[in-house]
Design brief:
The chain is an alpha+beta fold and about 675 residues long. Helices cover about 35% and strands about 20% of the residues. Strands 12, 13, 14, 15, 16, 17 and 18 form a seven-stranded antiparallel sheet that branches. The chain has a five-stranded mixed sheet with strand order 2-11-10-3-9. Strands 5-4-7-8 form a four-stranded antiparallel sheet.
Length: about 675
């Protein structure tokens, strides 16, 4: 996989000098891509290996150490339009080890420290794969959120941090204190965001860490709010203010203050206990809802922590054990192209199946032509496969030493693989698109979207049934769904009287939906479910919208020119006008049936399923329910997988327990009250 390097101890001074210069340049470039641009071009373990090599070289040849070396800097500079923040207490990065033996050596060196007596008691925590975050409170109120930056100067992200639900806007005690932790993107949110970006022809994020960084550093807090970021808080620089003596106590105390603290820390005393913890969470890694890339070991006694202090770059009281990269070699047998609902044509590598992070993997998205070209992936290549964020299969690199002699560069198609139309790049997108509105692949994907839960909600009409209806030429567009009859459906595979009757009823019921569902179901670019509701609440019916110009649509709060122009362009198409006429003929409702009251159309509560449990002190349960329903939420009496949020007051019982078991977001009354204030 990589070229064999001469051991550092065998190098001459000149050889070391010759190696160090390009190695520093490479690490500086990679660091800039990772820290400043949130767009890494190499895997973490590749960077880590190169960085360790530089550390070894500088330790062996201290005369070659320079102030501009990556080993002498923390993180990256801050190149953005965000306001700069100075950290009075530097935010340092951690040192790394890559084996149990290296970790034990680190502990041994601590135990043998002549200046500080170190007890063999450590607090182990999961190393969250996210972005370092500082939160400052004055008299219990959040006044500043900032990134680490270069350790001394970070970026002010206060407005963005306020959109993260797990960050308390106010503490239950009037403390003036700084806490630090990790801002991260859950695996499911990462997968959803990348799928959305890919569908829109935008570059995807390499991993959840970069997605979190890119989201937290947005200039528009509304964008951050949509990205479903979360936090784990794990450190308080001035621990004396909390009246605690150990790291484990500090975590418990921060939990009491309302911070989201990872529950999986453990106090250990020897190698056996450390190994057991590492084995346990290495095995559980894939099952966690968030990404971890290792284990953090901290001296548990906080006075000892202070006494040990820091080097120029890293603390002496903590170390990160990094998981080895889980990669599998496999061979690319084919590259297939699929056409999405919006015409986006996406390449996928088809490979020999391999076991990876607990699942069998044989396919990996290649995202877009640029990605395919950059990686230079060819049919017949041996490639190394990993899971980005432990969830999405991704090709990390090609093993060029195993490339077949007769290998030829892969040719990017110029025509749609389904309808044969010319493929184009729109608006400077990286994605290739088929812009033929009659492309069968787009129509079938569009039919599935039209029937989906947030659109027309036609229960029982999934992709397989749509495929059959299309193949039998029973439908050609969404209007055709409303002309289907009993005898036609009985010809479908595995369709009997009951399934036929159920589907016809579901189709018939969908005629009566409020029009925002239809607008979303039509699949107009950039028009999501929320935008569709805001627009239709404004115009009242579809005909009024079709007569409106882009400026009128764009002027609606929360919409803007991109959506306005997209809608006008869509309805200008004569084939679309014909489709709308057909939908009118079959009796599909074109009117907005929802409340056009004083409810805030931009509310984040719209469509959310909420359960109230326990005793509330600042309001009655009835008042809370009324407020939630006025802001578009559906308040239910029981907790299920479909529940979005549980608001738990005092003495919450079985509903709270069930929510925790299902991994549902649980808020206390204080968080809910703050959210209510922010909606004003």
């Amino acid at each position: 996989m990589s070229e064999k390097q001469t051991p550092v101890k065998e190098l001459t001074l000149q050889e070391a000098q010759d190696e160090i210069k390009p190695l520093r340049a490479k690490l500086t470039k990679w660091g800039k891509e990772y820290y400043e641009q949130d767009n890494p071009t190499v895997e973490d373990h590749v960077y880590d290996r190169a960085y360790q090599r530089l550390v070894q070289l500088e330790e062996q040849f201290p005369q070659l150490v320079s102030a501009d070396s990556p080993t002498q800097r923390v993180g990256g500079a801050t190149e953005s339009q965000l306001t700069k923040v100075r950290h009075e207490i530097p935010m340092l990065s951690m040192g790394d080890v890559f084996s149990i033996e290296e970790l034990m050596d680190f502990n041994q060196r601590q135990q043998e420290n002549r200046d500080v007596e170190v007890e063999p008691e450590y607090n182990l925590e999961l190393k969250i794969d996210g972005l370092s975050l500082s939160l400052v409170y004055e008299n219990g109120k959040l006044v500043q959120g900032s990134t680490r930056g270069n350790g001394t100067i970070g970026e002010d992200v206060t407005a963005n941090v306020r959109t993260i639900k797990s960050v308390p806007a106010e503490l239950p005690e009037p403390l003036s204190i700084e806490v630090r932790g990790e801002c991260y993107m859950p695996k499911a949110a990462f997968a959803k965001l990348n799928a959305k970006r890919e569908a829109e022809g935008l570059p995807v994020f390499a991993n959840p860490r970069n997605a979190a960084a890119g989201s937290l550093r947005q200039l528009d807090p509304k964008v951050t709010a949509q990205r479903e970021l979360d936090t784990f808080i794990y450190y308080v620089p001035e621990y004396q203010k909390l009246g605690v003596k150990t790291q484990a106590e500090a975590l418990d105390r921060m939990r009491e203050l309302g911070f989201n603290v990872n529950p999986n820390n453990r106090v250990v005393h020897n190698r056996e206990e450390i190994e057991k913890y590492i084995e346990e969470y290495t095995a559980q890694r894939d099952k966690l809802t968030y990404g971890i890339d290792g284990i953090v070991e901290k001296v548990n006694d906080l006075d000892t922590e202070v006494a040990l202090g820091n080097t120029v770059k890293v603390p002496r009281w903590e170390i990160a054990y990094k998981f080895p990269p889980e990669e599998q070699a496999t061979i690319v047998r084919d590259i297939v192209w699929t056409v999405g609902r919006t015409g986006n044509v996406t390449p996928t590598a088809v490979m020999d199946p391999v076991q990876l992070a607990g699942t069998t993997v044989s396919r990996a998205s290649l995202h877009n032509p640029d990605y395919l070209r950059e990686k230079d992936i060819r049919i017949g290549d041996t490639v190394y496969l990993h899971k980005a964020g432990d969830i999405i299969p991704e090709i990390s690199k090609v093993d060029l030493t195993k490339r077949p002699a007769d290998s030829v560069e892969y040719e990017i198609p110029t025509k749609c693989p389904v309808c044969g139309s010319e493929l184009v790049h729109l608006d400077g997108e990286v994605a290739l698109r088929c812009i033929n509105p009659m492309c069968p692949a787009q129509i079938k994907e569009g039919l599935a979207h039209f029937a989906s839960r947030n659109a027309m909600n036609i229960d029982g009409l999934g992709p397989r049934i749509i495929e059959q209806l299309w193949d039998k030429e029973l439908i050609h567009d969404v209007a055709g769904l409303y002309r289907l009859n009993h005898d036609q459906l009985l010809t479908l595979d595995k369709f009997g009287e009951k399934s036929t009757s159920n589907l016809l009823t579901s189709i018939d019921n969908s005629r009566n939906n409020s029009v925002e569902r239809l607008l979303f179901g039509l699949g107009i670019r950039h028009v999501g479910a929320k935008a569709a509701r805001i627009i239709m609440e404004h115009f009242g019916d579809l005909d009024s919208l079709m007569k409106a110009d882009a400026d009128e649509i764009s002027a609606i709060s929360g919409i803007g020119p991109t959506i306005g122009e997209s809608i006008v362009t869509y309805f200008a198409n004569q084939q679309v006008v014909k489709l709308i006429d057909e939908l009118r003929e079959v009796g599909v409702n074109f009117a907005y049936l929802g409340s056009r009251s004083n409810a805030n159309p931009d509310s984040e509560w719209n469509g959310r399923r909420v359960v109230l449990t326990g005793k509330l002190t600042e309001m009655t349960r009835g008042e809370a329910k009324s407020w939630l329903e006025n802001h578009g939420a559906k308040v239910t009496g029981s907790v299920s997988k479909k529940t979005d949020i549980v608001i738990a007051g005092a003495d919450a019982g079985s509903k709270l327990t069930k929510a925790q078991d299902l991994g549902i977001d649980v808020w206390n009354e204080q968080q809910f009250s703050q959210a209510m204030k922010e909606e004003q």
